[in-house]
Every structure is written in structure tokens, then in C-alpha cells.
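We include this case.
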Amino acid sequence: MIGFDKDNIDEKIVRKVNSMLANPNFSMSDIAQASGALVGIMKWVQAMMKYHELLKIVNPKRAKVAEMNDKLAVVRARLEEKRKKLREVEEMMAELQAQYEEKLDNERQLVAKIEDSNKKLVRAGKIIDGLADEKVRWTATVGNLEKEGSLLIGDCLVAAGMIAYSGPFTAKFRGDMEEDWQKKIKNLGIKVSDGVSMKKIMEDPVVTKTWTMAQLPSDNLSIENAIIIFKSRRWPLMIDPQNQANKFIKNLSKDVDTCSMGLKYVKMSDPALMK
């Protein structure tokens, strides 16, 4: 009974046992009267018959379950394969998304560069349009500079001669000297500007403005005298009856920040000079 193969009972045995169990004379009370030990065996036999009948219902279901498990295993294998492909596709999508973001960033940078280049082109166009008029002026300036360059030697001769020799003379005499020198320089075959003067060659308008602020008179003779003072190599001797040069030199030597005198001056009557 312990080792009985209950899952594989032969149908012949089942029919024979069921016919015996169906016999009215083979009842449980009769068996109990015959032997008490047979009651347990009888119950076991009845249980085996019921179990066999149940197996007829369960075994097909078990077979169906096994079949479905096999199909499930196949489906799961296919599902895992699909999931693997899905992961590969997702990884590819992530890579493509990263490339897309990179391209978008490159596009934004290129758009910014294009906008910057367009702005530069607009500014360059404005500069070129502005320089179109400057070209005419520069061309004229170059022509004037070339002309002035050819006249530089003669003009410098007049200016240098005036600085060296015209200091003691009046304005009219200086003008006559400049005219006379122009003629002689031309006779020597040296080009010189018409109407050239020391003031035209040597004057710096900014410096002249500084001089006039220091109370230098604004007439041509005074400006020429100041030019001679600052362009000469030797100390000048200034005859100053109206005391104009004295004031000019003192004012010019003042320190702008401290208003102190940067120039030391003495008089012939100072005691230090009398010793």
C-alpha cells in the first residue's frame, strides 16, 4: 500500500474493483463484521478509486498546464528577446537624442555667429560708406603732402634763416626779408612755397593758445618772437620796454597745480648781484 503507484492504476483493475465495491453484499458493515483491519483497507481502496477518477479530470488539466507552461516559456523567451531589442532601440534613441542636442547646440552657436557676422558686416558697410568720402579727402591730403614735401627744403631754409637772423628787426623788415629770401632760393633752383613765413612753418596752434593764455600778445610779431625764443639754441636777449615779455615768461613758468614759480629770476639791483 505504501509503495502503490496510485498515479498509474490499470483500468482493468479499476473496473474490477469498482464492480466489487458496487456489490450490495460487499458493504462496509459486512467487512467490519468480518475483520476490523479490513475496514481501513476498504477505505484506502475507495480512496484510490476516487483518486483515480479525479486523475481523469486533473491529468488533462495538468497536461494542458504543462503545454501552456511550454508556450509561456516560448513567449517569455520571445518577450525577453523583444525587451533586449527594445533596450537596444532605447540606447540608440538616447544616443540619437544626445547627437540631436549636440547638433541643436551647434546650430545655436552658428546662428549666433551668423548674427554677429551680419552685425559686423553692417558696421563694416557703414564704415566703408563713411570712408568713401574720406578717400577723396585723403587723396587730396596725399597730393598736398607730396606737394609740400617737394617744398620742404625751401620752406625750412626760410624758417631757419628767420629764427637765426630776424630777431632784432621789425615786422615789416621781417616780411621783406622773407620775400627776398624766397626769390633768391627760387633762383638757386630750390622749390619754395609762395608767401611762406616762419610763422606758417613753425607755429603750433595748440602751443600758441598756451602762450596767449600766459598773456602773450596775439599779434604776429609777438608770436614770432615766442617762436624764436623756444626754437633757438642760445639764450635770447629780450628788450621789453612794456614789460610784456616779463609777464609772459613768469606766467608760463608757473606750476598749474601749486601756482608756484618754476623759474627763478633776479634784477640787476638785487644785493646778491652787487657783491
User: Anything to note?
Assistant: Residues 256-260 have pLDDT under 50 and may be disordered. Residues 6-89 form one domain. The longest helix spans residues 37-165.
